[in-house]
Sequence to fold (53 residues):
Amino acid sequence: MFYFCVLIIFTPVHNHWLFDKPQLMCMHWENVGMDPFEFARNRIEAAKEACLF
Fold:
């Protein structure tokens, strides 16, 4: 019996530098168990829905 797990791990929106101008915000995404191309498509759609683009 095989179990297939698809998991997307992400960090909250945050910045890496204390005094950057303009302030740049980052979000890291990690794919576990998904085709890389499918992950990229899903990530872009999720970012659009979250108004990040």
